[in-house]
Amino acid sequence: MKLYQLALITVISHFGIVSFANSSCIGDDTGFCELGLSVFQPWCWGYEANCSFDEQLFNRPLCEGSPKPWVNTMEEKIEKFWRQADFGYIQDFLSTISDFCVPRKSHQGHLKCSTNMRYCHSRNLVLDFKEYNFDTRDRFLEDIAERVVIGGDCIVESDKIDMNGQQGGALQSWHRELRKFKTMSMGHNCDVTIERPVVFMKLDAGVNMYHHFCDFVNLYASQHLNRSFSRDVELIRWDTGTLYYQDLFKSVWKVFTSHAIRSLSEFSGKIVCFKEAMFSLPPRMYYGLFYNMPLVPQCYGSGLMKAFSRHTLSRLNIKHRPLDKQVQVTLVPRNTKFRNILNQEELISALNTVGAINLTVIEYNPRHMSFIQQLDQTYNSDVFITMHGAGLTHLLFLPDWGSVIELYNCDDAACYRDLAAIRGVKYFTWEESEALFPQDEGHHPSLGAHKKFTNYSFKLEAFLKLVLKAVDYIIQHKPTVSHHIHTEL
Ligand SMILES: *[C@@H]1O[C@H](CO)[C@@H](O)[C@H](O)[C@H]1NC(C)=O
Ligand SMILES: *[C@@H]1O[C@H](CO)[C@@H](O)[C@H](O)[C@H]1NC(C)=O
Ligand SMILES: *[C@@H]1O[C@H](CO)[C@@H](O)[C@H](O)[C@H]1NC(C)=O
Ligand SMILES: *[C@@H]1O[C@H](CO)[C@@H](O)[C@H](O)[C@H]1NC(C)=O
Could you say which EC number(s) this protein's record lists (predicted)? Predict the structure, then answer.
């Protein structure tokens, strides 16, 4: 099976825009239904052994530009991108999963992990918190393995565990938690037994959309490693302390579970037995997916990110409204201390005179707009405009033909450009530095002058030119839109 045996540009356009989110997915655990794919045809993600790439792969990425110096041929370039940011990433993980604790005869217990214990799966797992009371502010205590007994009903491969501790950072692997894994029988001494499958997660900042979506994307990727998207699972936030975890995106958990999120500290002082548990991919791995992600340039459209986007929108029941001839442009002002658009009124009045555009200016402020409403607005936008900041993570939820304008990237060029590339939406940013006016030199709390810590005004002509480029892209790519729209003023 070689990706480069594929025709380059066969875009499979089988997604019914209006109908893809429907309640009939309840009971379907394959993950395809949410994507609007017929369950009667055997689709594949790309990592399965029996996936026929030319007929059944539901999405393929595209590359442009020279393959050199990264690889030699265009085919290799596509494959590289596929392994960095698409389902090839999942395939590479799957190929390294092996036993770290071997089942005993007639017992079902096991611990299987990928290399460096970044993902693990266990049956008949025991966590003994008898001697541990969570009395710390540290979320991911370094020596937790000394204080909590963790084991399972299987025979431990201690040498192998020791050899897989190369990436032991808290948000990089599960090695620090599982390095003292021991053989324990599961039975009469459990204070609590959790029957439902459990997912342990170590989460990044819940107040920042960029970081928190690294959590969600890696959870979705982990579900692919176990090949199950059932919501009848218990999500347990792995936290060795009791510090409050602020989560501004709580409504997203519904995508993954129909039960309330739990936290480890509820088990203080108890021996807890788990029938089945997954340790999901942490959000800040080396060569991780989306945080710290290396990416060959000029490749676009990861199937994994497209699937994540659709899966999320579908399970949150967010629908696309009937397509409109006008280009739906959403401009999101930050209204925070920095990176405001000083001449916003001037720019907005000008956009309002462009007939092809239906402009919505709206602040994504959680006090006035729920996150679900924000996603609904984003998904129903063709062009999404905002300044550099975590809110740009919304680009993951633009429709496939969408485009995003990071009005000014404050010299942080790669972050949202790369995110847009893997999601497969068109990315634009401010290019004319002489047509951009910072309010002052910026005030970083410790570093002094800094481009991210001031406000900007933008020259009107250059702004319009940029927006109209994005609008033209939409007119060429939005399905069923008449091609007779004029973008002149
Ligand atoms: C691959 O095999 C599985 C199990 O036999 C089957 O359910 C699935 O439909 C097959 N997939 C494809 C793409 O043929
Ligand atoms: C893992 O997959 C099995 C099906 O093979 C499923 O029953 C279970 O719920 C999944 N576990 C998790 C934690 O999602
Ligand atoms: C512009 O879009 C909004 C939805 O965002 C819609 O309610 C409104 O009717 C549209 N306006 C026009 C003139 O089409
Ligand atoms: C940027 O704008 C905000 C909101 O108007 C204001 O509070 C802040 O002081 C401005 N920053 C600078 C550097 O002037």
Answer: 2.4.1.255
Q: How far is the CA of 254 from the centre of ligand 1 (A)?
A: 28
What residue ranges line ligand 2, CB within 6 angstroms?
A: 197, 199, 226, 228, 230, 233, 276, 278
Of all protein residues, the one whose alpha carbon is nearest to atom 10 of ligand 3 is: 358
**3-state SS of the chain?**
CCHHHCCCCCCCCCCCCCCCCCHHHCCCCCCCHHHCCCCCCCCECCCCCCCCHHHHECCCCEECCCCCCCCCCHHHHHHHHHHHHCHHHHHHHHHHCEEEEEECCCCCCEEEECHHHCCEEEEEEEEECCCCCCCCCCCCCCCHHHHCEEEECEEECHHHHHHCCCCCCCCCCCHHHHCCCEECCCCCCCCEEECCCEEEECCCCCCCHHHHHHHHHHHHHHHHHHCCCCCCCEEEECCCCCCCCCCCCHHHHHHCCCCCCEEHHHHCCCEEEEEEEEECCCCCCCCCCCCCCCCCCCEECCHHHHHHHHHHHHHCCCCCCCCCCCEEEEECCCCCCCCCECCHHHHHHHHCCCCCEEEEECCCCCCCCCHHHHHHHHHCCCEEEECCCHHHHHHHHCCCCCEEEECCCCCCCHHHHHHHHHHCCEEEECCCHHHEEECCCCCECCCECCHHHCCEEECHHHHHHHHHHHHHHHHHHCCCCCCCCCCCC
| CATH number, domain containing residue 389 | 3.40.50
Ligand whose nearest atom lies closest to the CA of 342: 4
Residues of the chain with pLDDT under 70: 1-24, 38-40, 188, 481-489
- Between the CA of 349 and the centroid of ligand 2 the distance, in Å, is 53
Q: 283-328, pLDDT tens digit by residue?
A: 999 999 999 899 999 999 999 999 999 999 999 999 999 998 999 9
Gap from CA of 50 to ligand 1 centroid (Å): 6
- Same domain for 472 and 425: yes
Residue 15 falls within a domain, yes or no?
A: yes
- pLDDT of the residue at 335: 86
